[in-house]
Specification:
By secondary structure, the protein is an alpha+beta fold. The chain folds into two domains: 220 residues, no CATH class; 175 residues, no CATH class. It contains 19 helices and ten strands. Strands 2-3-8-5-7-6 form a six-stranded mixed barrel. Helix 3 packs antiparallel against helix 13 and helix 3 crosses helix 15. The longest helix has 43 residues. The radius of gyration is 34 Å and the shape is elongated. Keywords: Cell membrane, Lipoprotein, Membrane, Transmembrane, Transmembrane helix, Transport.
Length: 431
């Protein structure tokens, strides 16, 4: 009798393929709520919402942090250069010859000599510290981040203008505009019998630029190269040479050719060395945020486990009847795998779509929330940038989706295994 039953069960099992239509039908019925199963359906709903919000949050946060890093990197390298050549032992009075030799190195786009010094910048409104950088007009026009973002004024005839260019934030704080005079005071001035007297001179504002990074818009002052040499008592010398290369990530390979081309004692540093602490902190924060936000998806996956275990207990009689009708343990296991995986897959897809929509409209959403709450959610003075950036990385997004799907599938294995191991005799004994 037992042998005959086993044989008939095997034939029934052999007549259907894995993930057959009836398995999908039963799984879909279990996902639909009935009056007495409302609590289980609520748990499934919370699991779905948890996975959706977890995936969306991960995508949004990672995109914002990627955009934040890319924007900062673009602003920092756009005004400070990819590499810097500074003199050692002797002043850099042969900067023209060194610049021409370095520009001949393959991969170097431009070499811009500059004079730089700290100074006090004073206007009718207030006074503040600034970084004065003397650059020739030809070099200034190569700084596209500055030259392409002039709000008022012009860089035409900058070398002979005897004027300066400042950022929008500095102009607002000083209370000046085009044509107004700004007084620049340098602590390193003329030597007199009374000691060193600070150098003080007024310059008209000929251009106002807006980089979009509040730190730079409120700090940098561009001055004609020859005027900066005279102001900082450097005569025919330069502070250093800024280099822009085709591939900023390959600066390590270019150091030796540039040192050889300089053909003089020089210290060559790149953007990674000068900003190592800042970008390392960003990378650590990004990795920690990813780990923390992954816990949201993990909690939602645990909700799937609890919901399916309750469903298995509630459907014990149904499972027993299916088994007696010829359904194999594999079929029962697949039914509950489909039930749980459906929550995870649909939740992951919904989370991806939600995250994508938010990332594509992140700045509009920020402005709306700021208007709604009457607060400034993204203060440029704190976050350096004037708007909230978001950059979706395909590799990271794929990793988030795969992780959510894997966690969802793993969460369904144990409840499905318990359902498959259910003994029909024990399940129907007290029915």
């Amino acid at each position: 009798m037992s042998a005959d039953k086993s044989s008939s069960t095997g034939e029934a099992a052999g007549s259907t393929k894995p993930f057959a239509a009836f398995e999908w039908m039963i799984a879909s019925r279990y996902l639909r709520s009935r009056r007495k199963e409302t609590f289980i359906s609520v748990i499934a709903g919370f699991s779905f919402v948890g996975i959706m919000l977890g995936v969306a949050t991960l995508i949004i946060v990672m995109a914002v942090m990627n955009g934040f890093r890319t924007e900062l990197l673009g602003k920092i390298l756009g005004i400070n250069g990819h590499m810097l050549v500074q003199p050692i032992d002797s002043p850099l009075n042969d900067f023209d010859a060194v610049s021409k030799r370095i520009e001949g190195v393959p991969g170097v786009v431009s070499a811009i000599p500059f004079v730089e010094g700290q100074a006090l910048v004073s206007g009718p409104g207030s006074s503040l510290g600034g970084l004065v950088r003397g650059v020739q007009e030809s070099g200034l026009r190569k700084l596209h981040l500055v030259a392409d973002n002039v709000r008022t004024g012009t860089f035409d005839n900058f070398d002979s203008s005897n004027g300066i260019a400042i950022g929008t934030r500095m102009a607002q704080q000083l209370g000046v505009s085009i044509g107004d005079n700004v007084t620049i005071i340098s602590p390193g001035g003329s030597v007199t019998p009374m000691g060193i007297m600070p150098r003080r001179k007024a310059y008209p504002v000929v251009a106002v630029f807006e980089i979009g990074m509040s730190e730079y818009d409120g700090t940098f002052v561009f001055m004609p190269f020859a005027e900066a040499q005279a102001f900082f008592n450097l005569e025919d010398k330069a502070t250093g040479i800024e280099l822009y290369v085709t591939d900023p990530d390959a600066v390590g390979l270019m150091r030796q050719p540039i040192e050889d081309a300089a053909n003089r004692p020089a210290l060559v540093t790149d953007w990674r060395q000068r900003n190592v602490t800042f970008f390392s902190a960003l990378e650590v924060e990004r990795n920690v945020m990813f780990i923390i936000l992954t816990l949201i998806v993990l909690v939602a996956a645990l909700n799937i486990i609890s919901g399916l275990i309750m469903l298995v207990k509630d459907k014990g009689r149904d499972i027993a009847i299916l088994r007696t009708m010829g359904a194999t343990r594999g079929a029962v296991m697949r039914i509950f795998l489909i039930t749980g995986a459906s929550i995870g897959v649909v939740g992951t897809i919904a989370g991806f779509l939600l995250g994508l929509v938010v990332c594509l409209n992140i700045e509009s959403i920020r402005q709306f929330v700021s208007w709604l709450t009457a607060t400034q959610l993204f203060d440029p003075t704190l976050y350096f940038l004037s708007k909230l950036p978001a950059e979706i990385d395909n590799g990271e997004t794929t990793m988030v989706l795969v992780m959510a799907l894997v966690l969802s599938l793993i969460a369904t294995v144990y409840p499905a295994w318990r359902a498959a191991r259910l003994d029909p005799v024990e399940a129907l004994r007290y029915e």
